[in-house]
Amino acid sequence: MADVRDMYMAHAMLRREFRLLPQLVRDVKPSDVERAKAVGAHADHICFLLHLHHEGEDLLLWPLLLERAGDKAAAIVPTMEEQHGAIERHYTEVTELLPQWRATAQQGERLAGAIERLLSALVEHLMLEEKEILPLAGQYVTAAEWKQLGAHGMAKTPPETMPLALGMAMYEADPEVFEDLLADVPEPARLVLTDSAQRAYADHAQRLYGTSTPPRVGN
Description:
By secondary structure, the protein is an all-alpha fold.
């Protein structure tokens, strides 16, 4: 059956990057458009990863649980869907504010507030998902079906951003879990991808946070 530990890895990445993002926005001076472009590109990227993550669950995970887990799924999946809807509304608010802020570096507080509202809804959702959904997935979803969630995300992630996305995910991950995630990749390519992912996030974090090792906020 499914080994759901990689979901905790993805959740840790989302918690960390969205928790750090409001202060990144607030620290951009209203006249510093170049910095706003850099922080805004990062915000766009993690918003995209969040949207992709939830899209995979909507398409692939909820239907399986509703089909197989009976009353247990019926008691929790509608709440998951409602929370996804609320998160999507906050996500839309953030992504609608981002272009103007990236272009002007103005009204950063408005954007930071929208991100904090998104973060609040996201953290509540992730906690409930870990408590209620992941145990059900481990019981009712096969390993092959679970891998389709990861495959969905990888298929829709642009190749040029794949190392960074993987580097973000592996930063706080159990090495064994990350190795299992890439188990189907031939070893030479897996080693190259792992190294490029680590370097991509270290370089990215250095530019954003001023350190290659930003705070690990995890769970």
